[in-house]
Design brief:
12 helices; 12 strands; five-stranded parallel β-sheet; seven-stranded parallel β-sheet; binds 2-keto-D-gluconic acid; 14% strand; alpha/beta
């Protein structure tokens, strides 16, 4: 965009735009920023500073609310490395006329792949099997051990049929799964070959062999899966969370797994994140946990870096962002 480039060039002549970021940032992000901005540490967001701050770049999930925005006088843009913005008070930003950029679409495939990774690993007890195969106890092969649960031909219930939910559904269809979904509203634009059935939340819980959480964390979805919902699930069911830890009540899940009320949980996210070392959930064998790796491939993280830096630079130049919330 020539105008944006000109405006940034003019700003650069005067002074580089000042951007607060939760450092350290990945090398790719720094390379893409290409010394066009002066980076300031996160302390500035917490303590404020006398000089104006032009931009805020959120890389991890540090909280940004109106008080942070008010401490940064002259703030023109908030650019988030990631699609989920539950750590940013978007209404506060709107009230102040500050655009919030995020990185939708570029991570749909990688995040959906993670849902399938967790479904397969959980159903087929991959992590447990890996530990056993490496252990001193594995001295003979026994066809009777470590029987898991099937994936193909089973019923999957997708909670949140957005862009990532749809990618999960496509993959499940390739596994010949029966697809149920629950969403704020029924989608009439889904590919017919998915044969996806819109159900009530309760029916999804009682009928699914795999309940896959793909919804954003909002006031409505916080604690969506608690003791009551877990008790409605089949004893053989597997809960997959690639959304946000806060969608699940951690204590209720820990109890349900301890009492074998459900078969297994495959979690890419937890609340809190990370869980305190020594948390009971970490000692259970019927849970598989990844350290928030949904979009963590080299290719996808590069695309997220490109898009988030582009949004930042456009916002600094007063131009519309390419992708906003
Ligand atoms: C990112 C994510 O890892 O996009 C999201 O919402 O949770 C992940 O893809 C994260 O935002 C980067 O910190």
């Amino acid at each position: 965009n020539p105008r944006a480039v000109r405006e940034i060039a003019t700003m650069t002549e005067q002074r580089k735009p000042r951007v607060v970021a939760d450092t350290p940032l990945a090398d790719t992000v720094l390379e893409l920023m290409d010394n066009r901005v002066e980076l300031l540490p996160w302390d500035v967001a917490l303590e404020g500073c006398d000089d104006p701050v032009d931009g805020l770049y959120t890389y991890g999930h540090l909280e940004v609310d109106g008080s942070v925005m008010d401490r940064l006088s002259g703030l023109k843009v908030i650019s988030n490395f990631g699609v989920g913005v539950d750590h940013i008070n978007v209404q506060d930003a709107r009230d102040r006329g500050i655009p919030v950029g995020n990185t939708p679409n570029v991570l749909n495939g990688a995040t959906a792949d993670m849902a399938l990774t967790l479904m397969l690993a959980s159903g087929r007890r991959l992590v447990e099997g890996d530990c056993y195969a490496r252990s001193a106890e594995f001295t003979y092969y026994d066809p009777g051990y470590m029987l898991g649960r099937e994936i193909h031909s089973e019923t999957v219930g997708i909670v949140g049929m957005g862009r990532i939910g749809l990618e999960v559904a496509r993959r499940c269809a390739a596994f010949n799964m029966n697809i149920l979904y629950y969403n704020r509203r029924e989608r009439t634009d889904l590919p017919p070959e998915l044969n996806a059935t819109y159900t009530s939340f309760d029916d999804l819980l009682t009928e699914s062999d795999y309940v896959v959480l793909v919804c954003p964390l909002t006031d409505e979805t916080r604690g969506l899966i608690g003791a009551e919902q877990l008790s409605k699930m089949k004893q053989t069911a597997i809960l997959i969370n690639i959304a946000r830890g806060g969608v699940v009540d951690t204590d209720a899940l820990t109890n349900a797994l301890k009492n074998c009320e459900i078969y297994h949980a495959g979690l890419d996210v937890t609340e809190p994140e990370p869980l305190p070392r020594g948390h009971e959930l970490l000692s259970l064998s019927n849970v598989t946990i990844a350290p928030h790796l949904g979009s963590a491939t080299e290719q996808t993280r590069f695309k997220m870096a490109e898009l988030s830096v582009e949004n930042l630079m456009l916002g600094l130049a007063g131009e519309p962002l390419r992708t906003t919330v």
